[in-house]
Amino acid sequence: MLIRLNQAQPYVLSLFRFVVGLLFAFHGAATLFGVLGGTQAETGAWPGWYAALIQLVCGALVALGLGTRAAAFLASGSMAYAYFKVHQPEAFLPLQNGGEPSAMFCWAFLLLVFTGPGSVALDRLFGSRSTAADTEGANRQNKAPAVPV
Question: Which of 28, 51, 106, 146 minimizes the number of CB atoms within 10 Å of its CB?
Fold first, then answer.
């Protein structure tokens, strides 16, 4: 059972990345354009409009798996800012201050910063040569000589 779960891990990580990125992009689109039941923010209004722009762009990049780690880092930071500047002053716990989505997105994107995009991502398509070279170099570094030199 564990073997099958481990084999599916890179694909499930890709699915997780896609869903989280898509939800984040939808949230940004709702705020930027007033679609999907959202209320449109005034253009250039701080911080709402800029946060929505980050959500739309970073969410789309993460969903596609393009520049995943950088986009996830920026998205995670924007959600940490949202939590501590907007929600946390209202009450201590996310359940009390309405900051649950901010906290969840922050930690989900931080996880993607460290795990990468998974096996199905545009990062893999465009960076396949460098990824293979990096992996080969890392494998050579991890091998210790059989006889101490």
Answer: 146
Would you state the structure tokens that stand for residue 48, as one six-digit string? Answer: 């709402």
Other beta carbons less than 10 A from residue 3's beta carbon: 7
pTM comes to: 0.81
Q: How many CB atoms lie within 10 A of CB 117?
A: 26
pLDDT per position as a tens digit, 96-132: 999 999 999 999 999 999 999 999 999 888 875 444 4
The first and second tokens of residue 1, run together, are 């059972």
Under 8 Å CB-to-CB from 31, ≥6 apart: which residues? 38, 39, 40, 41, 48, 49, 51, 52, 55
Alpha-helical runs (H) found in 34-127? 48-64, 68-82, 94-97, 100-115, 122-126
Give the Cα separation of 130 and 125 in Å (integer).
11
